[in-house]
Amino acid sequence: MTMKVSWFHRFGGPEVLVCEETRKPAPGVGEAVVRVRAVGINHVDLDVRAGTSRIPLTFPHILGREFAGEVAAIGGEASPLKEGDRVWVSCRVPCAACEFCVSGRDNLCEQGGYFGMDLPGGYAEFVKVPLSSLQRLPSQVSFQDAAASQIAFGTAWHVLINRGGLRAGNTVLIQAAGSGIGSAAIQVAGLAGATIFATASSEQKLQRAKALGAHHLINYTEGNFAQRVLELTGGKGVDVVMEHIGGNVFTRSLECLKTDGVIVTVGAHAGEVVPLDIIPFFRRQLRLVGSKNATLTELRTVMGFVAEGRLKPVVHATFPLADAAQAHRVVASREIFGKVLLLP
Ligand SMILES: [Zn+2]
After folding, report:
1. Which residues surround ligand 1, an ion (CB under 5 A)?
2. How many domains does the chain have?
3. In this structure, are 196 and 68 located in the same domain?
């Protein structure tokens, strides 16, 4: 039995992604095979494909960190799930034994692996997964919505709620509201009851951010966004900043913090090394914290909110598996609002 897969045999631009046939995986004991119906494209996919993430791979490599579909086969063991059941697959396989896993911080596990990076991912018709990765997908959630939700909402939840401590009545600045994580963060901040300041590069993106619940809209191409945040807050600044851009945006974001405020950093594509003035950190008791992915508990929490319709994934576009290269170009263009999906 064969299956279609979109993979690459060497690092390079989007053109290295080719659609070919390979052997369909068979489940071992304690494993299942999932028929993939939708897979989300993440920026990490582009980095892994280009070879810039410095992660050793075995070629050909199959990308795809977050996906949803149906159980196609179960190996050996008894499972609460059966063939044909709708599932989403948690993006990481934790070791379940290290100090982080046993204390519920499995997002920090260094032993386990990610689909699409350490393990073959979802850019394929079928993927082999451990039974423990299968999460039941409620009938009211489409495969597409499931594939667009896990990482964007999970990451946003971990940044704002877990690391930022965001709560009702707080003010929060969300950078790049048009990105997958930005549009997700606006909704999570709305659930938390915060007043939301959102930045984006165009009026169109800002209007979409407003529709998702942003209260104050700032076009960062039209002047100094930090100055605008201070004007809008009467000079006080905001309680929490979600910063995932890096470079100058990071440095300027520090100016947006209220006394005792917290900036959570979760990405740095625009510049990874920045100057840092330490003085405001003690004089104004500021906090800088990092954030990595989301715990399995948090992933289940956000997927529960998606099932209840309280978090609504934003899908920019979908492509067939054979057009993975084109889909990568669209994601790289950043002229998007929300997630780009492949439908194997
Ligand atoms: Zn672990």
Report:
1. 94-95, 98, 101, 109, 111
2. 2
3. no
